[in-house]
Amino acid sequence: MTDQVRKILDCYRSENPGVLTNLARILNHGRLAGTGRMIILPVDQGFEHGPARSFAPNPPAYDPAYHFKLAIDAGLNAYASLLGFLEATAAEFAGEIPLILKLNAHDLLHEEKDPLGAQIASVSDALRLGCVAIGYTIYPGTAERRLQYEQLREVASEAKAAGLVVVVWSYPRGGGLSKEGETALDVIAYGAQIAALLGAHIIKVKMPTAHLALPDAKKVYEEMKIPHATATERVRHVVQSALNGRRIVLFSGGPKEDDEALFAEAHAIRDGGGFGSIIGRNSFQRDKTAALRLLDEMVRIYQE
Amino acid sequence: MTDQVRKILDCYRSENPGVLTNLARILNHGRLAGTGRMIILPVDQGFEHGPARSFAPNPPAYDPAYHFKLAIDAGLNAYASLLGFLEATAAEFAGEIPLILKLNAHDLLHEEKDPLGAQIASVSDALRLGCVAIGYTIYPGTAERRLQYEQLREVASEAKAAGLVVVVWSYPRGGGLSKEGETALDVIAYGAQIAALLGAHIIKVKMPTAHLALPDAKKVYEEMKIPHATATERVRHVVQSALNGRRIVLFSGGPKEDDEALFAEAHAIRDGGGFGSIIGRNSFQRDKTAALRLLDEMVRIYQE
Amino acid sequence: MTDQVRKILDCYRSENPGVLTNLARILNHGRLAGTGRMIILPVDQGFEHGPARSFAPNPPAYDPAYHFKLAIDAGLNAYASLLGFLEATAAEFAGEIPLILKLNAHDLLHEEKDPLGAQIASVSDALRLGCVAIGYTIYPGTAERRLQYEQLREVASEAKAAGLVVVVWSYPRGGGLSKEGETALDVIAYGAQIAALLGAHIIKVKMPTAHLALPDAKKVYEEMKIPHATATERVRHVVQSALNGRRIVLFSGGPKEDDEALFAEAHAIRDGGGFGSIIGRNSFQRDKTAALRLLDEMVRIYQE
Amino acid sequence: MTDQVRKILDCYRSENPGVLTNLARILNHGRLAGTGRMIILPVDQGFEHGPARSFAPNPPAYDPAYHFKLAIDAGLNAYASLLGFLEATAAEFAGEIPLILKLNAHDLLHEEKDPLGAQIASVSDALRLGCVAIGYTIYPGTAERRLQYEQLREVASEAKAAGLVVVVWSYPRGGGLSKEGETALDVIAYGAQIAALLGAHIIKVKMPTAHLALPDAKKVYEEMKIPHATATERVRHVVQSALNGRRIVLFSGGPKEDDEALFAEAHAIRDGGGFGSIIGRNSFQRDKTAALRLLDEMVRIYQE
Amino acid sequence: MTDQVRKILDCYRSENPGVLTNLARILNHGRLAGTGRMIILPVDQGFEHGPARSFAPNPPAYDPAYHFKLAIDAGLNAYASLLGFLEATAAEFAGEIPLILKLNAHDLLHEEKDPLGAQIASVSDALRLGCVAIGYTIYPGTAERRLQYEQLREVASEAKAAGLVVVVWSYPRGGGLSKEGETALDVIAYGAQIAALLGAHIIKVKMPTAHLALPDAKKVYEEMKIPHATATERVRHVVQSALNGRRIVLFSGGPKEDDEALFAEAHAIRDGGGFGSIIGRNSFQRDKTAALRLLDEMVRIYQE
Fold first, then answer.
1. What's the predicted TM-score (pTM) here?
2. Cα–Cα distance for residue pair D63/D89, rounded to 1 Å
């Protein structure tokens, strides 16, 4: 057990040994084992965007086994996916990498101003599939966020009692937020705070921009001169907003980006005190060799 | 146990022996036993369209025993129907053919832009009636699909724990889809992917057309040049979209069609890697001799 | 056990012995015992129309004991009523006639285009009051029929497990149906089919008219030349629509009618293969002597 | 046990001994013990109208102990109140007077055309506080009355199983009723019938006026010449509408009235076969001496 | 056990020894131990207003441990916060100060006329974190207050059975109330009455102004000449409205105020018979030395 991991686990002292054990499993797996940093491969794009938009750019990715192997071969900390993907492959790769079962999902076949998502799997599913954690996406800012928070309360409580780690994807959206506002620094920090207060062990947010969207918050950022010009400063602010660094915060970049931009982001995450990355489309929408090269570079950045 | 069946069961290794056993019962029953292909007779038209529209073209079909005998005499793999139909006849034909209890249903007595359906039977009903599987219809694309997905989660989870196979009818519909869009290739493939991710063991979709309905998806199909000119190519794409062939996908044709068209579809399903057909109205809305002749030809195609 | 009753019970072979026993109790009680025909007295008008509209025409009927005695004295097969009526009298008349507890009810104090009703009693209530069956009213064609079908699924499932018979009143209504459409032959037959598929043991519908309301259905009735000119033909079609005679179908006439019309209907029900009548207002809204005379005549028709 | 009480208990023969015992406790307590008549003190005005409107006219009434003592000192049959009021005082006065816990309540801080109320306490609360009964208010005529009836079903069923008496306040209201219509004779009688059918043991209604509000009912009242010119006749009709006198019906007057009017009402209730009064604001919104004088006179009227 | 505490506990005699014990723990902790007065530090601003608006004015407050220590160092009676804050620190400070877990929370990322809040933690969470009480916020005056009252009923009932104290934040809001009306005396008193009737052990309200908002109530205040010119009189009226002093009522000031105004309020609370203060933003949005100075002065006022 390295000091870095021990220090992180100390922030979760109120949790039961089951949760601590599974959290340690994630922190101590793969090439970043023991560093206190992590990279997770999430694959739920097929539900959100449909199969062709998700997998046609790299057809082997239609196969759920592809992603399992990619995460294993790249030496990542964990692999997160939806029920069907894990059911189709969990027995085959049992014990090879920590698994996170995303419990809810949302599709775009019906457009909504305030998306809601559906809980499509349960804590029991996570247990029978050998997972170490459950995942759940919230959309703070949407009209029906109450339903999401209460559903999360129920699954998180059941998960913790069963010794599972709770990972929350916090994506502010909804009728009151502009597209630009969804990644504004104040909004992302607010989403991180909410996820932390809801009892998330690991929080996943998008990389924030320097934009400030909420008028009342903007006034405070300006009065207090909260530094937010650089990505590193913004990461630091988000981590601070997640219980002052007492909760693991991971960042994602969204759609396929320029690799250099991704590496720059990883540097900013690392330097700002972030705990790592969740990389989905950027890795599985290119061929495997290129994906491994990309992930290798990401790992190296976090190893420094 | 043939190699074809063993290979299919391998894709379901994460499931418990109860599910594997019941899946094997379907695969190993009837004239297609052991081929890895299947034809299922579904009879829920009486609920969806009313009795006269469903059965008047062939009045013996008003009797639920008629369908049971038809499926048995034609040597099909399974018979799927609604609660009342099975309650009225399950004891009489106990053990003669694998049964699928459709748990939800929808009627057209009240028109809706976004149909929802009702859960009219339970997993307990399926068990007490001797069924090997439950069936459930989802309408991806409808406003209240969340309710459907969550209801499916509950019954599917209960079914799997009881060793029952989960069959999902995935019919994209709803206010955001045109009539033509409901059978567009991208939409059908999306519906198959959703059903697979929701944990379906067997997925039933409509035969897709070459139409592409969702603008964002259309762009990808064109950029990536996904082959979809022929029915065979479209079947292949849908099967690929259902976990790359790791889940059984069945196709249906809809209303009474020209027999030659049906046979052509069966060839395309077979050649595209599909697992078989669900044939309802096309078989029970003609007299029994004609129906047996049609089903015999379908079986022969899948036996090749 | 007569052949007629044995033949009916054979249609319910999938049910447990408890249900068969209670069904036999209804079929073997009263003056129609053993005939395979039945007349049931239902009294829930006080909830639907208020007490004065229901009972002022024959004031002794304000008393729940009046109805119990009427059903007993007339030698009917069963008495159906709501919770309060049975609670007030069930102990007094315990064991004298089979009882059906109507579990849901609807009042007219608030007008609605799509009525819904409320479940006001439970299966436990039926058991503690010594009933042989539960009753439940559905309104196919209403916007919220899903809630009704799902509530029915729950109480029916619980009732069957407890050995109780399930009686479903199927009254198509709702915004999409005209007043005339509610008793159209195609609509009544559709309602009977839905009740049967929902798992009803006994189905109660209104006497259909020769009107055809649903355009898609009308086309079929005309193309297939389904006979429906006479009441006898229409009864035969409705019985056929309820699993081809495998489920008991009862008919009612509605508000106070000319006695000769009632007798004519009973002849039609009998000759069309119907199983009997449910007679409420027509019997209890006249003085007891007249009511007994009417019911005696009805019984005689069904005894022929 | 007096004959009057025994006769009343006989109407509840279907209930278990627990319910009979608690009903007897109410009937055999206070100065009206054994008469078959009862007066109950209800205090839930603070929730409905706020504290100042309820208690400022007689400030000692802000204290929940005041009401307990008032009911005891006046020799009433029972005291009914909301959770907080009973929690604050039930231990202090344990065993001194039968208690009724009102389970639901409604406030006027948000105006609604169709009030709904909230269930703010449970049957368990009633048991732990030593109550003999639960109370529940329904608003027949409101859009969401279904929710109320179903909530009442659940608590009433639980209460009866625990041997508690069920008291239902039946107040027709809602968008389809005029203010005058809420106390119309036909509407009050309808409300009493509904409460009785829902399984109430004791029904509380407002004193009806001679007004007739529902057109279909009005026609019947006029055709049948139902006597309703005097308050006594109207009480008799309401009692008849509550299972022909098989259920205890109590009447209330509403806001502070002229005492002579109250006494006249009590005479009418007694002479019309009513079982007594529920007197809230009229007693606690005057000083205690005056309240005791008023209640003494009410008791004397019912003792005659 | 001082007389002051004994007198307060006497008001809760109907509660079980578990609740009495935990209530005594709050009353007997910190510098106000034994006085019958209390000051509580609540920290849920991060959820309601976001992290920057809450903590940027005093950055150490981003850390949940900061608040724990502040409450301990200031010698307060209890510390109240949300799930994530307590999970991150409860083990570290176990046993050092009584804890209150706020079970519901509301964010401002989506504007609503009638706010609702979400239940984000459970009674089980409170127990596993070593809390002595749960907290719950209601918004009387909002359209969906029914959901809040019923959710409170469930958690309060579970909490009491587990021996936990129930603290209710009662904040009238909603479409029918003006901003000024939310703190009007009649509205605050009404909110205190509702919280008391819902079974709260401790009630938290805002300091009322002399404004009267509800026309029907205003008439009574004026007719009855209820004194409300001074803050002391208004506190006395609110305490009277909470079961005549039988329930602990605490007051808060809201956003950062002038210290002298705060002290004046504390004097008014004390002199009006209030039981103390809940001070959040006013204490943690300044540096710790200043916060301790402020809290010390508050404690001294209540010690007099």
1. 0.96
2. 10
Distance CA D174, CA C221 (A): 44
Q: Quote the ipTM score.
A: 0.96
Q: How far apart are the C-alpha atoms of B102 and B169, rounded to whole Å?
A: 10
pLDDT over 80 at C256, yes or no? no
Count the neighbouring beta carbons within 10 Å of the beta carbon of residue D210: 12
- The residues facing D276 across adjacent strands are D38
Q: Report helix, strand or coil for B74.
A: coil
Give all chains having 3 or more CB-to-CB distances under 8 Å with chain A: B, E
pLDDT in tens, D208-223: 999 999 999 999 999 9
Average pLDDT value over all residues in chain D: 96
Tokens of D210: 């001679």
For D149, which of C63, C90, C118 is closest by C-beta distance? C118
Q: Give the SS3 label for residue C5.
A: helix
Residues β-bridged to residue C169: C137, C204
HEC states along chain E?
CCHHHHHHHHCCCCCCHHHHHHHHHHHCCCCCCCCCCEEEEEECHHHHHCHHHHHCCCHHHHCHHHHHHHHHHCCCCEEEECHHHHHHHCCCCCCCCCEEEECEECCCCCCCCCCCCEECCCHHHHHHCCCCEEEEEECCCCCCHHHHHHHHHHHHHHHHHCCCEEEEEECCCCCCCCCHHHHEHHHHHHHHHHHHHCCCCEEEEECCECCCCCHHHHHHHHHCCCCCCCHHHHHHHHHHHCCCCCCEEEEECCCCCCHHHHHHHHHHHHHCCCCEEECCHHHHCCCHHHHHHHHHHHHHHHHC
What's the number of CA atoms in the CB half-sphere (13 Å) around residue B158?
16
Q: Which residue has the tokens 């019984």?
A: C299
Cβ atoms of residues E291 and E57 within 8 Å: no
The C-alpha atoms of residue E36 and residue E32 are separated, in whole angstroms, by 8
**Tokens standing for residue C86:** 């049975």
Contacts of C129 in chain D (CB under 8 A): 14
Tell whether the model's pLDDT for residue B253 goes beyond 80: no
- At D80, the amino acid letter reads A
- Rounded Cα distance, A186 and A188, in Å: 6
Split at pLDDT 50, 70, 90, the class of A176 is confident
d(C-alpha C244, C-alpha C110), whole Å: 38
| Cβ–Cβ gap A122/B224 under 8 Å | no
Alpha-carbon distance D148 to D70, whole Å? 31
Task: Report the amino acid identity of residue C234.
Answer: R
Task: Please answer yes or no on whether A125 and B157 come within 8 Å at the CB atom.
Answer: yes
Chain E CB contacts of A237 below 8 Å? 52
Which residues of B are known catalytic residues? Answer: 171, 204
Do A167 and A177 meet the contact criterion of CB atoms below 8 Å apart?
no
Tens digits of residue pLDDT in D270-298: 999 999 999 999 999 999 999 999 999 99
- Give the Å distances, CA to CA, from B195 to A76, B130, B149, C249, E220: 28, 25, 9, 38, 63
Q: Which chains touch C (3 or more CB pairs under 8 A)?
A: B, D
Q: Is there a contact between B138 and B107 (Cβ–Cβ < 8 Å)?
A: no
CA angle A69, A72, A73 (to 5 degrees): 80
Do C72 and C96 form a contact (C-beta atoms < 8 A)? yes
By residue count, chain C amounts to 304
Give me the count of residues in chain B.
304
D89/E244 Cα distance (integer angstroms): 12
Q: How would DSSP label each residue in D26-55?
A: HHTSSTTTTTT-EEEEEE-HHHHH-HHHHH
pLDDT digits (tens, 9 = 90+) for A4-59: 999 999 999 999 999 999 999 999 999 999 999 999 999 999 999 999 999 999 99
How distant, in Å, are the alpha carbons of A21, A118, A195 from that of A167? 15, 16, 9
The set of catalytic residues of D is 171, 204
